[in-house]
Each structure stands twice: as C-alpha cells, then as structure tokens.
Amino acid sequence: xxxxxxxxxSSLKSSQKASKSSVAGGAAFSASVEGGxxxxxxTPAAASGPIASVDALLALQEMPDATAGxxxxxxxxxxMLDMLEDVRKGLLMGAIPQxxxxxxxxxxxxxxxxxxxxxxxxxxxxxxxxAEVELxxxxxxx
Length: 142
What we know:
With about 140 residues, this protein is mainly alpha-helical. It has a domain at about 65-140. It is about 80% helix and about 5% strand. It has five helices and two strands. The chain has helices spanning about 10-40, 50-60, 65-95, 100-115, 120-140; strands spanning about 5, 10. A two-stranded antiparallel ribbon has the order 1-2. Helix 4 packs antiparallel against helix 5. The longest helix is centred in the N-terminal third of the chain and has 29 residues, at about 10-40.
C-alpha cells in the first residue's frame, strides 16, 4: 500500500477491482477446496501437544533461579551465625555443647567447599579451626 499524502492511498482502487474479480473466482476456489477434502485423507491431531507444553512448564519451574540460590545461601549464613552465637554464649558460661561444636565445624567445612570467594574461604577456615580447637579442649578435659 502506497500513501501519497494525507487521505490519498493507491491500493484502495485496486482492492475494489480485485474484489469484483474474486467474486467470479470464489466459486472455483470453493470447489477446489471441497474437492481437495474428498480426495485427501485426514488424520487426527496428536494428543501429546498440550502434554508436552505442560511438561515444559513443569521443567521450567524446577530450574533454580538466581534468587533461590541467594536465599539458600542467606539461610545457611543465618544458621551458621546462630551456631556461632550459641558457641559464644557457651564460652561465656563455661560450658559449650560438644554437639554444637562438631556441627559448626562440619557446616563450616561444607560451606567452604562450595564457595569461590577466597576471603569467605579464609573466614570459614578460621571458624572451622576454632571449632576444632574447642573440641580438642573438651576432649582433654574429659
């Protein structure tokens, strides 16, 4: 469609001419379509189309996104801080539960294996060493 200016278009006249000629050819077209239906064999549509799309949506939902990894990391960090707080209270009171120390040491070791940040790895190393030292002190006392 070509527009020459405001209110002027050249395809309007040609579309009117085409519609007059298409009326005569419309019967031939519908006859060829009906004839095509009689000669061709039709097959039913496969029912797996909608199921495949549902499977794709479920697979997409199962994929982790950036916020899921971040929230898991924050949850682990809060757990470790809670354990460190328990150890601090135990040091002040003079009685640290051995189970808490071993759990803290194990958690620091597991966290260190999954991190790529060297500063965080160094902090986790310090936490693990401190927990192991306190465990060794408890074993010597008993």
